[in-house]
Amino acid sequence: MFDKLPISSETEKILTKSLDEAITVEEANHLMNIKGSDLYPLLATADYLRQQIVGNDVTFINNCNINITNICTVRCGFCAFGKDADDPDAYILDDEGILNKARGAVENGAREFCVMGGVLPDADIEYYEHVLTLLKGEYPNVMIHGFSPTMVRDACVLSGIDIAEGFERLKSAGLDTLPGTAAEILTDRSREIICPEKVSVADWVDIVKTAHEIGIPASATIMYGHVETLEERVEHIDIIRKIQEETHGFTEFIPMTFMHEYSPIFLEGQKNLGATGTQDLKLYAVSRLMLRDLIPNIQVSWVKMGYRFAQVSLAAGANDLGGTLGEDELSEASGAPDGVNASIETLVKIVNDLGRHPIERNSKYTEFYPIE
């Protein structure tokens, strides 16, 4: 495959091996550090494996973000969204506000509500159960992709129950899938800098595995381009891989490049923030080579990267464009390059231009809806 390409012998050896089996952490670290003419063979290999594993469909979901509050007790250094309770711009949606957002999304064909927000100091399991039953009572056929491991952990503590009981109750109330957020970067060194108040790596792993055991699938994310090293990016993917080998509970893997311009750590003087375009592409490609069909769906975040670079990333091993996202206020606060709402027509155009097949999906990748 690489006979006529200018490529180093070590990179060629790793890429040849990757055609048949997952690469090791050491091999992934080598690929994360390649430069020059080694890059294009890496991207071509990842794209080839993508085609072999999932074919030429590019999936996405018609969804809507419902951020129930921007008040947050966990003020992370990377987040430009959270507010203190006494901030004049702070809000908490009441029932009518939640249903108004849901109603508008359903009128536009939404198949998923992504229910997120800040970590409220008094949000217990009963509160999240109420939000779920409120939405499911009005829209029983719309899936709910909701809450983060940190939100669930804190709610369980407030309600005096363990994590397993918390997830059982949330599932009974209508929670379909769990966002893989609060993962950020799964190394305690970096977390101590960017999100010391969030769950630890060990706690995040335990919470997500518990959700899987209860029967709640989850997405897996990585937020990169802040204070982590290249080796920590690989370590994060390897942790996700090991969880998936045990539980098979992840539906997708979502690399999210860090938008730093309005983040507290940038405004406070932290330097060297933000991944380069080459680093973005290497992360997608290495993710495909590490995860292969263990997590077959690798998602591009167009809201983080913009439409054009998201399209390029689909040629680096990815096969999913995420969602239409209606009102992603978290990304909007961080400076999303192409806004936070995408039409079905825009996503279809991106996919068609690649010569691939756009197809709508549900939250669990269990139902697919051809584009007419």
Q: Could you state the CATH homologous superfamily?
A: Aldolase class I
Number of beta-strand segments = 9
Cα distance, first to last residue? 37 Å
Shape: globular
Number of domains: 1
How confident is the prediction overall: mean pLDDT? 89
The count of helical stretches stands at 16
The level-1 CATH class: Alpha Beta
The spatial strand order of the largest sheet comes to 7-1-8-9
Helical content stands at 40-55%
Explain this structure.
There is one protein chain. With 372 residues, the protein is α/β, with parallel strands linked by helices. It has one domain (22-370): Aldolase class I (TIM Barrel). It is 45% helix and 12% strand. The chain has helices spanning 9-18, 25-32, 39-54, 95-107, 125-138, 149-159, 163-173, 188-194, 201-214, 230-247, 264-267, 277-291, 302-305, 307-313, 329-334, 344-353, and strands at 57-61, 63-67, 112-116, 143-146, 218-224, 250-257, 320-323, 357-361, 368-370. Helix 5 (125-138) links the parallel strand 3 and strand 4. It starts with 8 loop residues before the first helix and ends with a strand.
